Amino acid sequence: MAAVLESIVLSASSRPPSSLPPSMTFSSPRISLSSGRKIQSLPGFIGLKIQAPLKSPSASLSSKVPRVSSHKTSIVCEAQDTALDIPTVNDTTWQSLVLKADGPVLVEFWAPWCGPCRMIHPVIGELAQQYAGKLKCFKLNTDESPSIATQYGIRSIPTIIIFVNGEKKDAVIGAVPKSTLTASIEKFL
Predict the structure, then answer these.
(1) Cross-strand pairs, 33
(2) What pLDDT is recorded for position 40?
(3) Is the model's pTM score more than 0.85?
(4) Helix or strand (DSSP H, E) at 105
(5) I want to staple 160 with a disulfide (CB 3.0 to 4.6 A). Which of 104, 114, 134, 172 is the partner?
(6) For residue 143, what are the contacts with CB-CB under 8 A and spacing of at least 6?
(7) Organism's domain of life (predicted)?
(8) How far is CA 99 from the centre of its chain?
(9) Which domains are seen in the chain, by residue range?
(10) Active-site residue flag, 117
């Protein structure tokens, strides 16, 4: 089997297509082989311009348009407003908040660098609201409290453990749907 290696040369033109606004700048790199044959023209994108904030006083914060700060030119993520704050537990509060708690306790073992953990945070927040008064929900950062994670054999995160009267009753590993967590919770209410 023979393979032919040819060098690729990219050239770009800085002329934007006439159908686009002047604020967007495009380039069209062309690929040519060392033999001089041109293969095709590829579109390229050089920049992005952030739109100025609306000056209308009737623009509400609940609209679907991303909010743009008038003082800084940064976009604020709408998802920040939807996440619920789940109380944290650590080495010093573990005994009193989890092991000596009356009724069932759900603990999410997580870490700040864990993508699936960030995905499941809003679900745990919704469950905390849904089962308020029936179930206590906490989160434990495994980087800050590794001894507790080791004690309960946490080998991957997120791991959600349900405790009843200080005893581990059920564990769910991974970013699972809300229905899976609800089924686990309902067994102990």
Answers:
(1) 8
(2) 55
(3) no
(4) strand 104-110
(5) 172
(6) 111, 112
(7) Eukaryota
(8) 30
(9) 9-43 (no CATH), 82-186 (3.40.30.10)
(10) yes
Alpha carbon dihedral 156, 159, 165, 170, in 10-degree steps, equals -90
Which residue's structure tokens are 């380039």?
27
Provide the 10 A C-beta neighbour count for residue 182: 14
Distance of alpha carbon 28 from alpha carbon 9, whole angstroms: 13
Q: Are strands 104-110 and 159-164 parallel, antiparallel or unpaired?
A: antiparallel
Query: Is residue 96's pLDDT more than 70?
Result: yes
141: its two tokens: 């950062």
Amino acid sitting at position 12: A
Burial class, 88, CB count within 10 angstroms (exposed 0-12 / middle 13-18 / buried 19+): middle
Contact residues for 106 (Cβ-Cβ < 8 A; gap 6+) = 124, 127, 128, 135, 136, 137, 138, 160, 161, 162, 163, 181, 185
Of 117, 124, 128, 157, catalytic: 117
**Helix (H) / strand (E) containing 184:** helix 178-186
- What is the 3-state secondary structure of 40-102? EECCEECCCCCCCCCCCCCCCCCCCCCCECCCCCCECCHHHHCCCCCCECCCCCHHHHHHCCC
At 104 the pLDDT is 95
- Of residues 86, 89, 114, 127, which has the active-site annotation? 114
Is 137 one of the annotated active-site residues of the chain? no
Residue 157 structure tokens:
């995160």
